[in-house]
Amino acid sequence: MSTPVPALTRSRIDAAPPYVLALFRIVTGLLFACHGAAGLFGLFGGTPGGGPATGAWPGWWAAAIQFAGGLLVLLGLGTRVAALICSGSMAYAYFTVHAGHSLLPIQNGGEPSVLFCWSFLLIAAFGAGTWSLSGLTSRRTNAPARPGTRAALPHVPLAAPGSAGSPVPAVAHTAPAPGVPAGSPTAPAPGVPAGSKTAPAAVGAPAAPVPAGPPTPADAGEGVAD
Residues 131, 18: contact at Cβ < 8 Å? Predict the structure, then answer.
């Protein structure tokens, strides 16, 4: 019967993979860079001055990829691209140098090439993880504004007048009076010259009396009959 894992221990285990991946990336990049330094500069057991000539194919280029690619993976800068290039260089080295001697890596001496190839392919798939320069720069870029600094105002698109969310109301259009064609100007009130501007009536003031017009013939006839 298995013993249940405490919740605190389980939470620590679940939080460990990014840090384990970072340690794996750092160690792999360091070992690969040491191989490159030994080939280029004769360090760490290499032969001083006995390395390949500058630009010679494939020895000098392989050592340059090992040194530069290992440092980039170690620092976590451009990790995916650098790890993919390192993985491809080790695959090329295995098939051109080791695979022709025997079938199995343990027989042809290609175990380091195979291990580095698959290790860098794993790093290229999962990325740098934590403790990397790329992660540090991304955290600084995405960090919220500190108190006292002015944050950028969000861009608010302008809505058309009268639409939803617009502070400007739509202009109301009144329908023309019956018998008046649409779009024609309205006639002025009786007694008001055309083109003149009438002042608005005061609020609460009584309406001015309308003067009576001349009597019609019907009204005159009614007066005679009475």
Answer: no
- Measured CA to CA, the distance from residue 156 to residue 168 in angstroms comes to 15
The answer, as to whether pTM is greater than 0.90, is no
Q: Nearest Cα to 66, choosing from 109, 21, 112?
A: 112
Beta strands in 58-212 (DSSP E): none
Spatial CA neighbour of 71 closest among 27, 122, 111, 29: 29
If we measure between CA atoms, which residue out of 131, 59, 47 comes closest to residue 97? 59
Strand, helix or coil for residue 4: coil
Question: Between helices 111-126 and 17-41, what is the axis angle to 10°?
Answer: 130
- Measured distance CA(3)–CA(163) in Å, rounded: 65
The full set of domain ranges for the chain reads 9-141
DSSP for residue 96: I
Residue 40 to residue 37: CA distance in whole angstroms: 5
In total, the chain counts a number of residues equal to: 226
* Tens of pLDDT, residues 26-59: 999 999 999 999 999 888 887 677 678 888 988 8
The angle at the Cα of 142, spanning 139 to 148, to the nearest 5 degrees, equals 110
